[in-house]
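SEVERITY: medium
COMPONENT: batch folding queue
REPORTER: lab tech (J.R.)

DESCRIPTION
The queue accepted two submissions in a row. Attaching both inputs and their returned structure tokens so the on-call engineer can compare them side by side.

ATTACHMENT 1
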Amino acid sequence: MPMAVDVDPLLHDPLTGLPNRRLLEDRIEIAAAQAQRLERPIAVLRLDLDRFKPVNDVRGPRVGDEILRRIARRLASSILEGDTVARTGGDEFTVLLPDVRHEEDAAKVAESLRRAVAAPVFVEGEREPVRLTATLGVAIFPADGHDAESLLRNAENALHRAKALGGDSYQLCTPEMNRRAAERLKLEEDLRAALAREEIHVRYQPIYRLKDGSLSGFEALARWTRSGGREVPAEVFVSLAEEARLILPIGRFVLLAACREAARWKGRGAGPTVAVNLSAWQLREPRIADEVARVLDETRLAPSRLMLEITERVAVQDAELTARVLAQLRGMGVYIALDDFGIGYSSLAYLHRFPVDALKIDRTFVQELRPGSRGGSIVAAIIALGHALQLKIIAEGVETDEQAAFLRAHGCDEAQGYRWSGPLATPDVNALVEEATV
């Protein structure tokens, strides 16, 4: 017969070994204080086993205790390191998520926990497995409370509302949160289906040399056009793909499509370059350099015509890994650009450490370009710094003649934006390349 877990009963539940309510409340208070400083949300989830009492009454406390131990292990294995699952009642558990981006992230965890509970529980000596369901309530800091007491209370209120709706489900604290979470989860499901339906496609924004106005290359940008011709805003689509970890298949698709398209361009000299963004998930792929090499070989595109872009924020997440991967890519002859420069973690140390060929000035600075303005001074300084390090400088988001003139006057090498063109479909790109070679 399984023995109870030997733990400190002041802080842990003796039956399951999980933290008890006292330890949980301490952790919620600490997480809330950190979240307040970092201006980020946390989530508290209350989970109740549906109809556990009848099972416990019929099968006896031995089986009931074993079920609780097994459910506890399932819940603990369903959360990330740094999260907490506690036993806070007879058949009630509470989960603390100290780092969530959106309420739909907590909703996804709630659904994962609900499914974990729903799997059959096999208990030694019992002929039939036990099948249970779970109901959950979710509260989000700071919208639903600023301390452990209020967050636990509001998660409990959401739990009761889910029970009233029939159980075996979850509810967030407010109907508006439930609506937003449901919309986000539906959009994620649609994105997964879109990959199979080939609704993801690539558009190309031209990049021009400011010195003479000639075409330099294009930036490849993933786009999602849903059935009926409605395009999902790029910022929504890319953010969702990152969070759902769908950015890897999308990134592979864009890299292959862009290199294949660029290999067809016939321009002056070697032809226009193509710039492709690398996400944080792609950068962490163990064989990303091999994948890029395979794509270049398959499409027969010269490495010097491919520029891979990473943002500052992505680059500094793991500086050692970034430096190693970029060195491999650059060693192949691929060009490297540091994107969104100036809004992340700009540092001379990183510029010295990372093998990059170009800096892309973020559009937020370009929008503020005026003679004598603070934004203008920052852009001029970035250009001077980049040139001192023998880096090419590319400005993003140029929309007016005045912005282009300012950049040209201060020696910026290249620029892109609606001043010249938005992202183009393949036929328009081909026409532009042909026109540029005449």
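ATTACHMENT 2
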Amino acid sequence: MAEVRGPVVAVAAVLLALAGCSGNVGQVSTVRLVDRFQPEAVQGAPLEVSQPPPLESWEFEQPPEEAPGWSAADGVAAVRIDSGALRGRSSSDWPLLTVQRSHGLEDDDYVYSLEIRLRVSAGSNLSVALLRELPPPHALADMAFSFPWWESVPILAGDTLQTYQVRFGIERSSSEVQHLLLRPTDAAGADFEIDWVRLVSRRQHLARIPSGVGWHGFGDVFKESLVSRTPESIRFLLRLPERPWLDLQ
């Protein structure tokens, strides 16, 4: 009986093989634990798993005078809050919206991603930049072209609200991110509608990962992994080869 116990919050060590060596050199049989996994192998799972809240979220259900401080920085003809959404129209292919953060700045966790519920009438990409300081308004548009820290995802133009996640490749603590710069579309003359925006921490992301097999990584190296969390254990009933060893990568 092999047993794997999970760490406190999220991704367990990558379990690739349980191998054994016979008497003949070079003859190795391998049992991949990810191939043997079944959902019932997870034991001791808590009935409820608490989900950390977002680092910060912006909803647009409030009256305009109470709404979050999003504003048009450049390339936006008009922006307003109407019917529970932030609405506007791009006047160039570099429309920029900004907001200064007011919550979660004391959190020492990393900013993992931005999630947004968005509709655009035209365009192919959504982009986000995380900034400590916002450049002056007169310099923002010119500097935006050369920002090295833009993260982008493809978007689907049309009449339907879509949910997108923009993951940040460079880890930055929440306290370092004072401003968000959002380019809702890359098309001029496009109408956009934003239902909500959420800034997700690494802790919140890890808490969402279900126990079991998945592709997870450190940095840019991803491998098929077994995931569990305290107080869970994952048990396997195996016939071990002679002189076995456990290979963790």
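NOTES FROM REPORTER
The CA atoms of residues 71 and 98 lie 6 Å apart.
No errors were logged for either attachment.
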